[in-house]
């Protein structure tokens, strides 16, 4: 009888609690994060997703973050001026975007809109972002 209690407390209960993190309206997923900024006119730093700094370096730097489903707040600073930017669109991450994925990439476009992509492998820049980046370089 004592074995059953120990088994339930130390084995079953933690599994049940851990499983709760991935269900419900406030599900949380732990995954590698990175970012891509397509505006060559300035360098961003301190890119925050809901107050937590995520990886950057045009997809070359990753960090591990807890990602909650639902509306997101995205802010970043210009490394030269310290000017604070905030996404101009409302980013909402759906549970379906995160399920069974390993990486989340945040894409920052020159008009301060943001987009999220998820993948099983290191993410790539978006076609939209690369077109925008090339156009801005030509107009320099």
UniProtKB/TrEMBL annotation:
| Residue ranges, annotated region (Disordered) | 118-140
Which residue intervals are annotated with compositional bias (Basic and acidic residues) in the record?
125-140
User: What name has this protein been given in UniProt?
Assistant: DUF2846 domain-containing protein
